[in-house]
Amino acid sequence: MLTRRLPVLCSRCQRVCRLLHCSASSRDLIPTTFSRLQVAEQAPIVTAYTTNGFVVQGNRVLGSVALLPRGYLNWRVSAAAEITPESFALFYLIEPKLDLVVLGTGSRVQRVPPAVSELLKRKGINLEIQDTPNACATFNFLLEEGRPAGAALIPPEYIPP
């Protein structure tokens, strides 16, 4: 399985690096339903992604993930075709209100139903649709700037070598 690591500010060496300081093994991974995984004081930076999930704040998350400015949850959407307006309810129900949601649709950019973008627009939230690798980087950048942003990320189907 290939893993693509994103450059982030490392908490250990205090510089931008591609090292993943995580000792969790794949046997420790447990799939979850849509529930609270972790809420923390520091922003949930995505440090790596695989075809099976993501590494957020040093924790491995199987499957899709919904990221908020101070926490993240397992998102029960496994493909862009499964996205509905209801699957974005979390992003407009939380306080403080988000300005932007970055949607990562997998290995390539895919369309979502117009009802999704229309609903978010009515709620005052912009939607940015990208492939997942770029969506991870965009979300990390927005958090580093202190912007109130969320992300909905579907793991990529493949990772180029």
What is the gist of this entry?
With 161 residues, this protein is an alpha+beta fold.
What features would you describe in this structure?
This protein is of the alpha+beta class and 161 residues long. Helix content is 17%, strand content 29%. The protein contains three helices and twelve strands, in the order E-E-E-E-E-E-E-E-E-H-E-H-E-H-E. It has helices at residues 89-93, 114-122, 132-144; strands at 3-5, 8-9, 16-17, 36-39, 46-50, 53-56, 59-62, 65-68, 71-74, 100-104, 126-130, 149-153. The strands form three sheets. It has a six-stranded mixed beta sheet, with helices on both faces. A four-stranded antiparallel beta sheet has the order 1-5-6-7, covered by helices on one side. Strands 2-3 form a two-stranded antiparallel ribbon. The chain is globular, with a radius of gyration of 15 Å.
Question: Helices, strands, pairings?
Answer:
Blueprint: E1 3-5, E2 8-9, E3 16-17, E4 36-39, E5 46-50, E6 53-56, E7 59-62, E8 65-68, E9 71-74, H1 89-93, E10 100-104, H2 114-122, E11 126-130, H3 132-144, E12 149-153
Parallel strand pairs: 10-11, 10-12
Antiparallel strand pairs: 1-5, 2-3, 4-9, 5-6, 6-7, 8-9, 8-12
Supply the key terms.
alpha+beta, 3 helices, 12 strands
- Strand tally, please? 12
Report the structural category.
alpha+beta
Oligomer: single chain
Helical content band: 10-25%
**Net shape:** globular
Intertermini distance: 11 Å
Mean pLDDT: 81
- Give the strand order of the largest sheet, numbering strands 1, 2, ... along the chain: 4-9-8-12-10-11
The H/E string reads EEEEEEEEEHEHEHE
Low-pLDDT windows of residues: 7-37
Number of helices: 3
How would you characterize the largest beta sheet? 6 strands, mixed
